[in-house]
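Provenance

Sequences were taken from public entries as deposited. Structures were produced by running a predictor on each sequence independently, with no templates supplied. The record for Oxalate/formate antiporter from Fasciola hepatica is shown for reference.
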Amino acid sequence: MQRQLILACLCVLGGILIQLSYGYFYTIGNMGPYIVDYMDYYNKTVNPNAIVWLTSVQISFEAIAMPLGAWMHRKCPIRAVVAVGCLIHSGGIMLTFFTLKVGFLGVLFTYGLLQGFGMGFGYSVTISAATVWFPKHKGLVVGLIVAGFGAGGILFTPIQTKYINPENTKVDNVTQHFTDLELLNRVPISFLVVAGIIVAIELIGIAMLNDKTKQSELDREGRDKDEIRPEHGSTHQALRTLDFYLLWISLGLSVIPVISLSSLYKFVGRSFLNDDLFLAGVGMAASVCNSVGRIIWGMICDRISFKIPLCLMLSSWAILICTFPYLVVLTGTPAKVVYVLWVSTMFFCLSGVFVLNPTATNILFGSKNMAVNYGLIFTAFIFGSVLAAIVTTIPVRGNWINLFTAISVACVFALFCVIWIVDHKVPSRLQFINFPVKLRALWCQRVCRCCRVTSPEIVIELP
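Predicted structure for Oxalate/formate antiporter:
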């Protein structure tokens, strides 16, 4: 029993380290201006909006790779699957040293496609492998592991900024770009520096990961029977439910603010706060909220399930995003204080996306096929990434209000989808949140086959 507990804790810790390396993703908001200014200086002009395309490609290929990694995990040990993903992930970052000097399409391939694919290949399997060890605390375990992802910005943002801009050089007041040659020439090398750190973290994390003993053996020992309950349905059963598609659409719409905030928060800040080190510090504060928030959301899920916190998160997020562009009218210290508060709170809400959705997948469709099911739901990120890229074609210079209003509308539509999802784990005193489901049953089940099946836990066989 003690050995099992040690292996379980090591698996969670290994998952946290792997996710920490993947959390380098959240430095795109800090790194984006450096990439744009470097390419602009060397006559490879890139619009700031192009950084959103970079983020969109990362997330799209993460979504493509996730079910592939989950499928490979059925055939291979967890360490082999994650090792393949980490090799592609860190290799993509290293190769950006070369592609940055070629053009934006090259950066899109290495920093976007390769990094995103490698990240997705090991993302859901680390979560799935860890939650199997702690079936009664799935929300907390998911929160702890993806907190590592959120903490990536805390670790890598100061490394980037201190290496590239140690003197806190200011941007040009007219062009709003960096023009210092020494600073710009450090940008490509920074990818090699960070990639080396990432490789070291990933090697340690892979060594800690392990698969749980086969369920049949554990059952003979009288342990963990929860994991072999017959109601844990198949992926086919999940695909027959309306809840699957509502969650898919909601997640896809949530991607729009995820990508937009991660890519553009520093550009907004730089439009009225000309202090690069301060903005890097804001990025670190946002990463802290992103990381700690995931643990908090996970603990809330274990107490009241996923639907209520998901509704609260989306409604709060919509209000914060809609009001964010109005901060540019502030000046001095109040501007800095309010900017930190807004960005940090928005990233706290953002953190909920990556805890509440996998937990919802686990609750709705069971843990047996959790990696595959969540991998399929995560394909909504492809849909959301394309929408985000389209939304951000709204001209940003002088039009932050139009852009962020459109983003907040996406949160409202996501909320509308969530209220129709059935949540069987909601405590009895909070069952009011499932009232819309009664209307769904009244209106839709007569005509829609998938509305008659709510989740594999209570599958109703259809003729």
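DSSP finds 17 helices and no strands in the chain.
The chain has one domain: 2-214+232-458.
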